[in-house]
Specification:
Rossmann fold; 2 domains; 14% strand; pyruvate-formate lyase- activating enzyme; globular
Amino acid sequence: MEYGARSKPPMNDQEKIRRVKFVLINPTADFLRAKRNRKPRFKNKYFRFSMLPSLYVVASMPDWVESRIVDEDIEPIDFDIDADIIGLTLMSAVAPRGYEIADRFRKSGKTVILGGYHPSSMIEEALQHCDSICVGEAESNVPTMMEDWRRGQLKKVYDLGRADLRNLPLPPRGLIHRGSYVLADAVQATRGCANRCSFCTICSMYKHQHRTRPVSEVVREVKGLGRYIMFVDDNLTYDREYAIALFKALTPLKKTFFGQTSITIAYDDELLKAAVDCGFKALFMGLESLSKEALKEDQKGFLEPEEYPGLIKKLHENGIMIMASVVFGHDNDTKEVFDRTLRFLLENNVDTLQATVLTPLPGSDLFDKWNRTGRIVDRDWTKYDYSHVVFEPKLMTKKDLEAGHGHVLTEFYSWKNILKRGWKMRKYTNIWQSSRLLLGISLSYRQRIKAKGFDVMASGHASG
């Protein structure tokens, strides 16, 4: 991709001298990394849903900064790239790779800035590998950081508070390889979540606040996008009245939407109808556990797992695919939790699954608690990828937990169960419209599971 900047008048020679080149890099795990001279792999499309956070960083830059975005999922990093400033956005699992990249660029004389969830939570650690850290939201910090850099006064840490979500600049979507993402058109209407889920880093990043953009601005942005759009909000319907107003304003556009919300949307007929009328076809939702005790441990006691089957049925009857998240490794989980959960998922025809191992990510309440009590036994950040166990479980071994997690994913995404779900799907949704999403996610998980060493060819022994 070429460098780009927001629309502006032609530059004269003096202005060109002041141009600064900024490259924002998104590192990735080794088994997903695009190698030089190799085309991007199909599986990556369904796991990097959007580059919207990076696009917002670039949109926050002053006009005199020319930006480029590099996603290591789909293209290799050129360490000889022409750039004045290198930015890296890091989650915990890719922090070691990010530090490696940062160190290499700093040795070549480049200024390196780190941002994202991990550096924002592990400031002292991250400062060993960069010149400055953007803590929290780009819109609050980036303009000041760039001005300070130009004056030679770049500070070590910038944490200038919450961004104003009014009049956000439009993301420069031309800077990404659109064909490499299953849903390149991503939008954010709200930020943060006021819930206090113990394992979630969103709470600390956004200070337990849920904020909204003006509905009119979201609608104006959506109008300029394609037919299929992903809302990347962490909890799109947390503010009920806002969500209803947004959905009603979007309805005349006749687009197809995907997003993330709580399963509790199924309790609210008015809110659910507004989402359906608007064009939502699939919702990602955290079921987390079938145990009320485990949900209380997660500080998600407002969920009622005995009501999940009826809520899932209601969502299906309204034509919505269920993209569910479950978490294994709670203190009351025994080895029986895996088959029990798998049976539930198959019997209730949950459409796609994100199954994870409970992970105490830096910045979460869980990390703070277990760090104080000594339950964390592994500080290798590459293992904070939701499939490795970095703590001591109470009622099973670490090996049992990792194996059980792998077993559920392998069985859920066996060909037998994929085909069963596809056959049942015809009863509640447009099979031709939804089959691409179902098949794409399923195939992507099969490839990812295989890359992590699980036997994806196993046939499920739990009945669906």
